[in-house]
Amino acid sequence: MAPDPEQRTQPHPLDIDNITKPWRSELLSRQEELKYDRPNYYINDPSSLTTSSFANTFITGTGDDIFSAVLPHIAYAESEIIFITCFWAKSASLSKLSHTLRLLSSKALQQGGPKIRVRIGFSSLSLFQKLFHTPSVRGKIYPLDIWAKKLGLPFPSELQGLDLEIKSIFLLPFSVMHPKFIIIDRKKVFLPGCNVSWEAWLEGCVELSGPIVQQFMRFWEEFWANDGPGVPNIPTTASTPASEPPQLFSSNTPRPAHHITPLAPTTSIPAIFLPSPHHLNPRFRPFASPSQTHAPPTPLNTFLLHLFSHAHDSIHLQTPNLTSPPVLTALLRALRRGVAVHILTSSRLMILEQLVTAG
To answer: Where does the PLD phosphodiesterase domain start and stop, copy by copy (predicted)?
Structure first.
């Protein structure tokens, strides 16, 4: 039961050093466990993950809503798009992405300059793909002749203005890469919770700019671009793409959960980049009891569990799947400390996954 709101203390002021110091210390103390993570470039200096950012926009809605808001930014890109997702499936979102890539290609051809560089990465396409995927961390690059048939993208002849490469990485036995981000011209990054798929879930997306973008670039270079000749420089321009480009897609059926909130930042805010790398767990047991389940000490897991254990007033959690024993344990402990815990999920969402993983 949540505490009475009238009896709660006021939220404590944010002290970044106080938050990150024990987190950095724990990561350093577990370097031996982290040295096989991919990527792991930060394990000797976790402080390199602290930076700053501008939070520009927050978007809520279904995946289709979110991509309808984000894709116009892609259409207005000048030099480069890096598009990383987890699950890839034929859907309205994929159709809209295909339309956007056609627009981007046409713009590049009309301008007569260099091709716009586009790199797409995903982890999960189908059961067959996962069963027979290369186990190499270098992943698989998809040849041009199967873009349309296998991936649902336009034919290469429709994308001649783009320097496009598409890669999937899936590490056996079942290690999908969940991080999702879209980097535009190395100037701003969108963090959608949704996949390129048909899933009509309540999702969120935040748009960031500033130094945090280079953290996402580094992660992409170390993991997704680990087999290339190096990341080239891109042309720099004095102009910045419009923060709110014209809409490309409209809906005749407004959804109550769909909302775009401009944050209009005036100053940068402290930021912590939390990689979620591939972590090999040799002690993994599929049917282990919750008491024997331990979260891999990745920067993301370590930081979130630290926040849960040090929460003073309230925790608000929005998730499609709440079955992780370490998270459940941390939330129950927070409740015992008098912390108000609010969880927003969907009653009919991910039923099979929750039955399998609940223990």
So the answer is: 173-200
